[in-house]
Specification:
The complex is a heterodimer of chains A (267) and B (566).
Chain A (H helix, E strand, L loop, with lengths): L5 H18 L1 H4 L31 H36 L2 H15 L3 H12 L3 H28 L2 H8 L4 H37 L11 H9 L7 H30 L1
Helix pairs in contact in A: 1-3, 1-10, 3-4, 3-6, 3-8, 3-10, 4-6, 5-6, 6-8, 7-8, 8-9, 8-10, 9-10
Chain B lengths: L24 H17 L18 E6 L15 H7 L7 E3 L5 E3 L2 E6 L5 E6 L13 H12 L7 H5 L3 E6 L4 E6 L6 H5 L9 H4 L3 H6 L7 E7 L3 E6 L20 E6 L3 H9 L5 E2 L4 H8 L4 E5 L7 E5 L9 H10 L3 H8 L28 H10 L4 E2 L5 E3 L2 E2 L1 E7 L5 H17 L2 E7 L1 H9 L5 E3 L9 H6 L21 H12 L3 H17 L3 E5 L4 E5 L2 E2 L2 E2 L6 E2 L4 E2 L2
Parallel strand pairs in B: 1-10, 1-11, 17-18
Antiparallel strand pairs in B: 2-3, 4-5, 5-7, 6-7, 8-9, 9-10, 11-21, 12-21, 13-19, 13-20, 14-15, 15-16, 22-25, 23-24
Classes of the chains: A mainly alpha (267), B alpha+beta (566).
């Protein structure tokens, strides 16, 4: 095993910070993210408020730390939905009869014709805004990519010697899927998922920024970015720090995915 | 003829530099740098000759509005403020008001009330034609009133304003008689509003969608194009002959055209003004007003809207606010003053009245609205909301003390939305679970129509104290043809109805003023409303724009006398 480089450790450190923030926010910032203090509004970063305060005098550091859970959770859940759907569509296409493969492949291709965020917006237009629908929307939007990857993996594994051997030995369909095909698909998928989480976090924040996800005053990075936008010319810290949190978390998961990818390849 | 006592405060004024707090200084330094950069790269040099020169004709003025884009440019349909803003440029009313609030001639030159108060005669100007060539005559007025009152039009504001008009007849070509079901002390004030402005009868006969797209009036400009979600183009009416009696002398309109752009994002709107891309903006935000103070190329026009103040209406028609104690508890638990201080940077003053500060008959009662958490808790305990759940919200019979609060993001500026969040936070201390539901105008209207709200902030602009009748008479619980009902607090008190009806019928100024004072006290004492501040109406404009003024009627800006000094 090679020694981890800075590019590999930095994302882990950043993610560890955000994961701790998400799991136990009070360890880092014990305050209430919704506690207002109107007469201490619009304060620039200082010793008392390291990242400043927002328009209602809420502490921005506390809000970013407490906002990690909803912001990351939406990203992770959305990816889970996308992967789940992708697996079903991909396996159905890769293992099913030819007509089913053709149908599901065409369906995935139609979804591919829409840019991901547009697909998410379309879903929200139908289902209405809110944190649950925006999570599902992002999940749906990422599903086609996973589906295509899973299908091609399944197709190549299906024709491999050990699967044919399992068939000859008379192993059932489920056993072949669970013992032989899925394990070989998940290795590749895992790397892609790490890359995808970062993207999902950005998309979920984008939807909150547009007022379609988590609504104010909840501490969520996209929503914070949105409420600070009005004051961007006067009070930069209201948008800068939530934006930084989004960039850092997305960059960290993506870098982590990259290094995992190269490790998988070299091993 | 003037019923309204004079009110110097109605006059729209340009605000001079105000002091600002040290807390905002650091941020301002940064915004100052940004602005300097914008101006250096922009193309809006300040006027060299100071604006004392004679008006210059020509040029295109770009106006950026932050109000919602109207769904119909004919303000008879529905009837909201975004429509009034743009319609002021192309439609005119029978009468207007001057800066002191006195009724003055506009399309009608004189008028008289019958002895019994049941009919009014209006004499029309005889040289006015609509921009499609139709003459303005008694028949045209008749057609307009019929249009507003036709349920198919779907009018709400205009429909309510003409509620007592039972018939209109042409006495001669230029004299028109209104007959009323009861005397109406507010008739002239009602007729001064853009929602009952005069349109060409031939144009009104067209399909509703067509008239919505290109209404035809007698005003200084003509609607020539409507590029939805982007802008409306208005061009000069070269045959314009009918300015209101208080218009400046001159041979305006001077502008060739107006581009009326929709720029809903406040930061973008201000940046566009500061860079010289647009000439006038409305709905200027408090932080922008402070920043503009330091900018020599920008000026402010502050014109609070008449009618109601900006206030929260507590829906007394359904639980939990059908209990007066719970209403009082909510109002006592809301810390409004600190929020206004911090969010509005001194650009808005707290109101304790149902009426705008420009309404001389407004009654203020600050004692009723003291922030008092202890009292709020006592009231809720006494009202049976004794338990609290794990989240700290009060519970009674297994029901949480939930308050649904739909917020129209088209009507409530960001600072106001933040104020609502603060009210949400402070009332939580008393155990209220306030659920803010931000949405666009159509979602918001739908929530109100379905009676699925407990608190709402609904601006209502009308000239004169008769707005109280529209907002708090029990008749206002019945929806107007548009589906909108104005009595959102759902106040249903026979004695209040009597007072408001009587006040709308008496012509004695003192008696009228007393009746409205009694009526307002009932509304305030019943904790139906939580007044916040005047309906904010701040315009910022480039110093190159001369002759811009707000109409003394509903405070919409008029560009009839405006010209560009550049």
């Amino acid at each position: 095993m090679k020694r981890p480089s800075v590019v590999e450790t930095a994302p882990v450190v950043v993610l560890a910070f955000f994961v701790v923030s998400a799991v136990a926010p009070n360890l880092i910032a014990p305050g209430d993210p919704l506690a207002i203090d109107p007469l201490a509004s619009f304060q620039a970063p200082s010793a008392g408020h390291p990242l400043g305060t927002d328009e209602s005098g809420r502490d921005i550091l506390t809000r970013i730390v407490h906002g990690a859970a909803p912001s990351l959770l939406i990203g992770v859940l959305a990816t889970a939905i996308g992967v789940g759907l992708g697996l079903v569509l991909g396996i159905v296409g890769g293992l099913g009869p030819r007509w089913l493969d053709t149908t599901s492949t065409r369906f995935v291709e139609v979804l591919f014709a829409f840019p991901g965020l547009l697909l998410a917006l379309l879903f929200i237009a139908i289902a209405g805004p809110g944190p649950v629908t925006s999570t599902i929307a992002v999940g749906l939007a990422t599903a086609p990519g996973y589906a295509r990857l899973v299908r091609s993996q399944v197709l190549s594994v299906r024709r491999s010697g050990y699967v044919e051997a399992a068939l000859v030995l008379g192993h059932g369909w489920w056993r072949r899927l669970l013992r032989h095909i899925l394990p070989n698909v998940t290795a590749t998928l895992f790397v892609l998922v790490t890359l995808g989480v970062g993207q999902s976090i950005v998309w979920a924040s984008s939807l909150s920024y547009l007022g379609l996800g988590v609504s104010p005053p909840a501490a969520e990075w996209g929503a914070m970015l949105n409420s600070g936008r009005t004051y961007v010319a006067s009070f930069w810290w209201m948008t800068f720090f939530p934006g930084l949190a989004i960039v850092l978390s997305a960059a960290a998961t993506t870098l982590l995915g990259r290094s995992l990818q190269s490790r998988v390849r070299s091993s | 003829m003037a019923i309204r006592p004079s009110s110097p405060s109605r006059t729209a004024t340009s605000r001079t530099k105000t002091s600002r707090t040290a807390a905002t200084r650091a941020g301002l330094a940064i915004s100052g740098l940004t602005l300097t950069a914008l101006i250096l790269s922009g193309c809006a040099p300040a006027a060299d000759n100071g604006g004392s020169s004679d008006p210059v004709a020509g040029g295109t003025l770009t106006y950026a509005t932050g109000d919602a884009e109207p769904t119909c440019l004919d303000p008879h349909v529905g009837g909201n403020y975004p429509q009034a803003l743009v319609a002021t440029q192309y439609l005119e009313s029978l009468v207007s008001l001057d800066a002191s609030g006195a009724v003055i001639p506009w399309l009608a030159t004189e008028w008289s009330e019958a002895e019994d108060g049941l009919s009014w005669d209006f004499t029309l100007r005889d040289n006015v034609t609509f921009t499609d060539g139709e003459p303005l005559n008694a028949a045209a007025v008749q057609a307009n009133v019929a249009h507003v009152q036709d349920p198919a039009t779907g009018s709400s504001t205009g429909y309510l304003a003409l509620g007592k008009v039972t018939g209109v007849e042409a006495v001669s070509d230029t004299v028109v008689r209104f007959t009323l079901s009861a005397p109406d002390s507010a008739l002239l004030e009602s007729l001064s509003q853009p929602w009952v402005a005069m349109q060409s009868p031939a144009a009104l006969e067209r399909a509703k969608e067509v008239n919505c797209e290109s209404p035809v009036g007698t005003g200084p400009f003509v609607v020539t194009e409507w590029d939805r979600q982007n802008s409306i183009t208005l061009e000069r009416n070269d045959d314009y002959t009918s300015p209101p009696a208080d218009a400046a002398d001159g041979d305006g309109p001077y502008l060739d055209s107006i581009v009326w752009r929709f720029v809903p994002d406040s930061a973008t709107r201000y940046a566009a003004l500061a860079s010289g891309e647009v000439d006038v903006i409305d709905n200027a935000q408090p932080d922008a007003l402070v920043a503009a103070d330091d900018d020599d190329s920008l000026e402010e026009l502050d014109a609070p809207r008449p009618g109601a103040s900006n206030r929260l209406e507590l829906n007394s028609g359904i639980a939990p606010f059908n209990d007066v104690a719970v209403r009082e508890a909510f109002i006592r638990a809301a810390n409004v003053n600190d929020g206004i201080t911090s969010l509005f940077f001194g650009t808005a003053e707290r109101s304790y009245s149902a009426l705008s500060s420009v309404e001389p008959l407004g009654v203020s009662d600050p004692d009723l609205f003291d922030f008092d958490l202890e009292k709020s808790n006592e009231l809720l305990d006494a009202a049976g909301w004794t338990e609290r759940d794990a989240d700290g919200y009060r519970v009674k019979d297994g029901e949480r003390l939930t308050v649904t609060f739909p917020v129209s993001t088209n009507q409530s500026i960001p600072a106001e939305q933040s104020l609502f969040e603060q009210i949400q936070a402070t009332t939580k201390e008393a155990g209220f679970d306030v659920v803010l539901e931000p949405g666009d105008l159509s979602t918001w209207y739908a929530t109100l129509a379905a009676n699925e709200y407990n608190v709402v902030s609904a601006p209502y602009t009308k000239v004169g104290p008769d707005v109280l009748r529209i907002l708090y008479h029990s008749d206002g619980i019945t929806p107007a043809p548009s589906g909108y009902f104005a009595n959102l607090a759902q106040v249903n008190l026979p004695e209040l109805d009597t007072l408001l009806t009587e006040a709308s019928e008496v012509s004695d100024a003192e008696q009228r003023s007393q009746l409205y004072a009694d009526a307002q006290q009932i509304v305030l004492d019943g904790f139906y409303i939580l007044p916040l501040y005047d309906q904010q109406n701040h315009y910022l404009y480039n110093t190159a724009v001369e002759g811009l003024r707000a109409m003394p009627t509903v405070s919409t800006p008029t560009l009839a006398e405006a010209w560009l000094d550049r």
